[in-house]
């Protein structure tokens, strides 16, 4: 049981109400430092991608960002790079059937 401000909260009941398993809840608590470490790495990667995105002052596509980030000695797979671009809300250029679309 968890005690907070003289209220007794039953973990089993809370997990049922939230729709998660108790083992999942305890796993979430145990891996907090791992999640924060991943978030720091993602933030550093985002800063590199943002700098590559703003390189030379014009918008680039995902492949152009990948090539512009090459001097930083980082090796991103294109899937991870596109995922971080979409998560951050950057607008990239997409070429579809020779028509330039801003996404």
List the helices and strands and how they pair.
Blueprint: E1 2-4, E2 7-9, H1 11-18, H2 22-30, H3 32-53, H4 62-68, H5 78-88, E3 93-96, E4 99-102
Antiparallel strand pairs: 1-2, 3-4
Helix pairs in contact: 3-5
Walk me through the structure.
There is one protein chain. This protein has 103 residues and is of the alpha+beta class. It has a domain at 31-102. 55% of the residues lie in helices and 14% in strands. The chain contains five helices and four strands; from the N terminus they run ββαααααββ. It has helices at residues 11-18, 22-30, 32-53, 62-68, 78-88; strands at residues 2-4, 7-9, 93-96, 99-102. The strands form two sheets. Strands 1-2 form a two-stranded antiparallel sheet. A two-stranded antiparallel sheet has the order 3-4. Helix 3 (32-53) packs across helix 5. The longest helix is centred in the middle third of the chain and has 22 residues, at 32-53. The radius of gyration is 21 Å and the shape is elongated.
């Amino acid at each position: 049981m968890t005690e907070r401000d003289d209220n007794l909260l039953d973990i089993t009941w809370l997990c049922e109400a939230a729709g998660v398993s108790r083992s999942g809840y305890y796993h979430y608590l145990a891996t907090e430092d791992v999640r924060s470490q991943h978030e720091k790495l993602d933030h550093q990667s985002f800063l590199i991608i943002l700098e590559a995105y703003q390189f030379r002052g014009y918008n680039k596509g995902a492949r152009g960002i990948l090539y512009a980030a090459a001097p930083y000695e980082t090796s991103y797979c294109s899937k991870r790079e596109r995922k971080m671009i979409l998560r951050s809300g950057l607008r990239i250029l997409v070429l579809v059937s020779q028509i330039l679309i801003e996404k």
